[in-house]
């Protein structure tokens, strides 16, 4: 099967390369000539315009977007649609907000196009290990792309599935990322506690390796923790600044709207916010209050 790929960043290029290995024809587009050149070195057919991308694909076309969520997706659809025809299918494999996906699916349906939303997990390891794909959209469109999903997944019958109508794929991926926040926070806090027990002089990388086998807390994230600690035991040079992609926020907002308690995920998100405060006003006020009511000493900034 042939597929157009818009967005040849690291993950998009890796997905295209995995599809090539499974004998799919991939035509890739990027605004960057250098990015297109690197893709072509891997065997991807590169183009420098959306018009050429559409011309090189046989109708009905299938085009996969791997671009940042939000306005970039809307702008890309606006630029792309004039070159497409009814019955073409567009796949959004990025981390789009599911409510945006619902809006886009409705708009495209009215114009005669098909839209499939694919929550994609696997990161930089997907090329070798395969991707986890959570898919939303019309059943017929999903079946039409089955060979693509089977090639991208860890195995043809594992790691991917049609989870529901338009928006469902990105909704499931949103919750997936919220869970990821909580798991990462638990590992981070546990290893911090181990490190602070100075009188035991624990080897954190050794502990991580022990836990990786037979333990009830073993996981791929633990494998990555062990790898990080092996490469940099003290995590020297890594700033305690943790960004968020937005999906944790969307998960927390959805939980509030549905009245579903998710305290672990919410606290993990809030801890990421806290990590970005160079000087916390809240903590300064706490210190000042302790001085006011109890006469406790305040540590002064130098």
Structure description:
By secondary structure, the protein is of the alpha/beta class. The protein is built from 14 helices and eight strands. It has helices at residues 10-21, 33-41, 50-56, 71-80, 98-110, 126-129, 139-144, 146-152, 168-196, 204-211, 220-231, 247-258, 263-275, 281-294; strands at residues 2-6, 25-29, 45-47, 62-65, 89-92, 114-121, 132-136, 160-164. Strands 3-2-1-4-5-6-7-8 form an eight-stranded mixed sheet, sandwiched between helices. The mean pLDDT is 95.
* Unreliably modeled segments: none
Overall mean confidence score, pLDDT: 95
Proportion of strand residues: 5-15%
Helix content: 40-55%
Distance between the termini: 64 Å
Characterize the largest beta sheet: strand count, sense, and whether it forms a barrel.
Answer: 8 strands, mixed
Shape label: globular
Give, in spatial order, the strands making up the sheet with the most strands. Answer: 3-2-1-4-5-6-7-8
Helix count equals 14
- Overall radius of gyration: 23 Å
What structural class do you assign from the helix and strand content? alpha/beta
How many DSSP E strands? 8
What structural keywords apply?
52% helix; 14 helices; 302 residues; alpha/beta
How does the SSE layout of this entry go?
Blueprint: E1 2-6, H1 10-21, E2 25-29, H2 33-41, E3 45-47, H3 50-56, E4 62-65, H4 71-80, E5 89-92, H5 98-110, E6 114-121, H6 126-129, E7 132-136, H7 139-144, H8 146-152, E8 160-164, H9 168-196, H10 204-211, H11 220-231, H12 247-258, H13 263-275, H14 281-294
Parallel strand pairs: 1-2, 1-4, 2-3, 4-5, 5-6, 7-8
Antiparallel strand pairs: 6-7
Helix pairs in contact: 9-12, 9-13, 10-11
């Amino acid at each position: 099967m042939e597929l157009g790929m818009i967005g040849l960043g690291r993950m998009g290029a890796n997905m295209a390369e995995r599809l090539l290995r499974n004998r799919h024809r991939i035509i890739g587009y990027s605004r960057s000539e250098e990015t297109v050149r690197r893709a072509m070195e891997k065997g991807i057919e590169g183009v420098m315009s959306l018009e050429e991308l559409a011309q090189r694909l046989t109708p009905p076309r299938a085009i996969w977007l791997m671009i940042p969520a939000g306005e970039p997706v809307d702008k890309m659809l606006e630029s792309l649609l004039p070159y497409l025809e009814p019955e073409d299918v567009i796949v959004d494999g990025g981390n789009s907000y599911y409510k945006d996906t619902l809006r886009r699916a409705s708009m495209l349906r009215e114009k005669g196009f098909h839209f499939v939303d694919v929550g994609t997990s696997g990161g930089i390891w997907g090329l070798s290990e395969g991707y986890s794909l959570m898919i939303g959209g019309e059943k017929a469109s999903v079946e039409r792309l089955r060979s693509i999903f089977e090639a991208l997944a860890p195995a043809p019958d594992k790691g991917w599935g049609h989870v529901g109508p338009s928006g469902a794929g990105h909704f499931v991926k949103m919750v997936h990322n919220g869970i990821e926040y909580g798991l990462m926070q638990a590992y981070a806090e546990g290893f911090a506690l181990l490190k602070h027990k100075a009188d035991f002089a624990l080897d954190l990388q050794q502990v991580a390796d022990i836990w990786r086998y037979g333990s009830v807390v073993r996981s791929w994230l633990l494998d990555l923790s062990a790898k990080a600690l092996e490469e940099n035991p003290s995590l020297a040079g890594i700033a305690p600044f943790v960004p968020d992609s937005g999906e944790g926020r969307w998960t927390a907002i959805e939980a509030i709207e549905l009245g579903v308690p998710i305290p672990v995920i919410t606290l993990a998100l809030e801890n990421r916010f806290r990590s970005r405060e160079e000087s916390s006003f809240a903590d300064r006020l706490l210190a000042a209050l302790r001085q006011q009511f109890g006469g406790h000493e305040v540590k002064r900034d130098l």
